Structure formats: structure tokens, C-alpha cells
Amino acid sequence: MTNFKPGIEYAKEQDLLDPLAHFRTKFHIPKNSHGEEWLYFTGNSLGLQPKETKNYIQQELDDWAKLGVEGHFEAKNPWMPYHEFLTETMAEIVGAKPIEVVIMNTLTTNLHLLMISFYQPTILKHKILIESDAFPSDRYAVETQLRFHGFDPTESLIEWSPRKGETLLNIEDLESILQSNGNEIALLLIGGVNYYTGLIYKDKFKEYTLSQNKLEQLLKQFPEDRLVLPTKYNLYKVYSLLGLSQSQAILKKDIIENHKDSRYAAILLNPELALLNNENSPQSLYNNLYTQFELGNYQEVIDGCDLQITRLDGDEIVPKLELLKATSRARLYGFEAYKEGLNFVALNYPSSLEGKKAAQMYSTIIPELANKAFVEDSTQTNFKVVFKFDRSEVEEINTFETALSTAVEEVDYFNLTVSRDGYNTNTIFVVVHGLKSVQGALGFVKILETENELIISKPYFGISSMNYQIVQIHKNAERYIKSIK
Questions:
Q1: Contacts of 31 (CB under 8 A, 6+ apart)
Q2: Which residues touch 197 (CB under 8 Å, ≥6 apart)?
Q3: In this structure, what are the phi and psi dihedrals at residue 47, rounded to the nearest 5 degrees?
Q4: Under CATH, what is the fold of the domain 377-484?
Q5: What pTM, to 2 d.p., does this model score?
Q6: Domain 284-369 sits in CATH 1.10.1740.10
Q7: What are phi and psi of 193, to 5 degrees?
Q8: Measured between alpha carbons, how far is 214 from 203 in angstroms, rounded to an integer?
Q9: Could you tell me the pLDDT band of residue 278, with boundaries at 50, 70 and 90?
Q10: Identical fold, 284-369 and 377-484
Q11: What residue segments make up the domains of the chain, in order of their start?
Q12: Helix pair 208-220, 225-242: axis angle to 10 deg
């Protein structure tokens, strides 16, 4: 860990020293549009295709073509005992005896088969306990089993979550959940290794040395930036449990000096420090960003959220920051950015209120917003006039908005209002609301032009409230303007 050096040269140097590096040539590696090989880190979802795969599959197809049903016993690799070919190697991988291992189905199918056997709920004892960041398909399988037996996952699914300000799970919290809910829990489903952090639960197995090695390896293997600091902090605690005071002191110094603005550093410097009741608390920082959101300063909110998400990694405020960032990106970049942002929050923070809200919005609101078709003006009763400005024209926008607001106040036969709306990263709309037809909207501007030369100089268009919503969602104002010419 102490020899680690960030940068591509160090990575290439380690590749040369890796005795398994030659296996890289045995896989097909996808390339980007420039013909460069991807850096592929999604093997947990779908691994790279081995170059021999096509030959293996073709062998089975050939045997099927030539032998038909006899392939079960006569094929080069007989199909009937296929599972036995992998028994020895898989037993070694999982640390079991060959007689205890069988290769079959997919993981999710196997989970269902296990739960059909071992999940036997009753009216009083029906809840299932899982990790809050369990692999998504594991969670879906558990929720499916609960519904199959007539229970509501929102009530019958208990989640073991990290402590506030931390990312990794703690066994004491699991014991607390079992003590308080044990009479209602029918099944405990927890993997030996957390897929997200790579952590083997140290307290669960009482193998602190193994946990130490795994955490140190995790730090050497270029984990996501968001995992580096929580992993260091958890390793610091493992060193304490093992009595490795020198290693603990070195890591404490590392966290304090290299992550001095983090909450972990603050905790190490002063474990009794109350971090929540001050102007720099996570909630105060979120409130400040939300105020900027209400003012329409969306890019500032996005940048601020990015900064605080990194700084406050592991804090329960992070999902709120992610959802605020997603909403701000939607205001600047439109529907696709909103869809992508909600999906990200739903998948990465599934156990948080924000994650659940994002998942609900993704499944209900996103389909409703997907429609880009403009409605006919004849079917609408609420209209607007929209004046278009470049974002850089700050002083001109202020002067124009003031003049327009004054002019609107003098029109006493309509209940008109003026707003300043962000459109995208380059454009601001100054909008008059409350008009009853597109002809009335355009006529209203003609009246203003006779009284105020400032208004004559700016491009504008009339639009129904419904079409304005579509324009803001899909950022297709130019398409709308072309459609009315």
C-alpha cells in the first residue's frame, strides 16, 4: 500500500510484474469509436468474452447436429454429466468439498430455489433481512418471494445499513437488528462477500487478519474514489482490533493529512465532535444548494453537489444531493439527463428514501414525460410569451425583466406575471404568463412594442403552457419555433 503511485506508468509497470497478465490476450476487449480498447470494470455484470468461447459453443452445436438426443451421452463433452466437469475447480474456489458442490442454473434462480426451501413464513414470523446494498437481482428475488407469500416488501423487508457517516456494514448493528426484530425474522440472506465493497465481514467470521488482507488488497486495486476513504477508515478500525498500533497510527496520519476536510479526519481528531449542528453540517450544505436551485442557478448546484458528494461520501445526505443534482441536470439538459439521473439514484441508493422515490418516479413519471409531440393551440387556454437571451447578457436580462414587469403591472385586465427561467447552459427565457390565446400573446407584445423600444429588440414567441412544458423537458425550442413559422 505504501508503494502505490497513481498514474498510468505505475499501472503499466504493475502489469509487467503480474504473472497472470498474459491471460488478457485470451479475451475479446471492446473498443470505443476511436478504436481504443475499453478499460473494462464491469465483470460483475458481464465478463469479457473468452476468444475460445465461439469454438466451445460451435463444438456443442456440431454434436447436437450430428448426434441429436444421443449427445447427452455420446458428445465430445456429454451433456448429461456436464455439471461434473466443473465440480473440482469450483469446490476449490468456494472452499468446499467436491461432494458439497454442484454447478446449476443462474444465481437468481438458485436463490429462489433456496428460499422456496428455507423461507417458510408465518403470520408472526415472515420478515427477511438483507444488506441495504445487496446486489440488485438478489433484492428483486427477495421481494418476489415476499410478494409470492402475500407480504408487502415495504413492511417485511429489513435492511442492514451502514452507520451514519460510514459506507461499510458493522456486525454490532446486525446483532441489534436481530435482538429487536428476531421474533419477526424468518430468513437472514447475506453474502459472504459484499459485491459493492469487496469486504468480507470481519466480525461475522471473526477473521480480522483475513479482513485486513482484503481491505489492503482493495486499496491496491484502484477502487472507486468514493470507496477509498471509507475503506481506509474501516482498515484503521481493523488494525485497532488486531492490536497493530503502528499500522493504525500510520493510517490515522494518512487520513488526517490526506483527507483533512473529511468527516473521518474530524472523527479521528476528535471522536466527540458534534458535526451536525453547525453551518458546515451536511444538512446545512444541502439547504444552501437547494436555495441556489430555487434561484435557478442550476450549474452552481450541480458543481456544488459534485463537490459535497465526494466530500461527504458515506453520509446519509448523499442520496439527497444526488437527487438534487439529477433534478438540476434535468433543468439544464432535459429529459434524457433526468431519466439517466433518476436511474442512477434508484440503482445506487436503493434503500434510501431518495432512491425509492427516484425508482418510483422512473417507473411512473418518466413514461409520462417521454412524449415530445406538441399539442394544438386550439385545445389550450393558457399561453405565454417567451423572450430569449444568452446567459452572458446578465445586465441586459435584469434591465429587460424590470421593464417588462413594469409594463405588465400597467395591464389591469389580465392577471399577468413575469419569470426568469433557465432553458439550457447557454440560454435564459424571460416569460410572461397568464395570456389566454397565442394570438392574444403576440398581440400583447405588439402593444408593448409601441410603448417600449427595449422590447422590440429581443426575439420572442408565443406558446401554450403545455407546449412550454414540453419545450423545457425536451429542450426542443428550436423545433417548436420552426413548427409555428
A1: 37, 38
A2: 167, 168, 218, 227, 230, 231
A3: -75, 165
A4: Alpha-Beta Plaits (3.30.70)
A5: 0.45
A6: no
A7: -130, 130
A8: 14
A9: low
A10: no
A11: 25-104, 107-189, 202-269, 284-369, 377-484
A12: 150
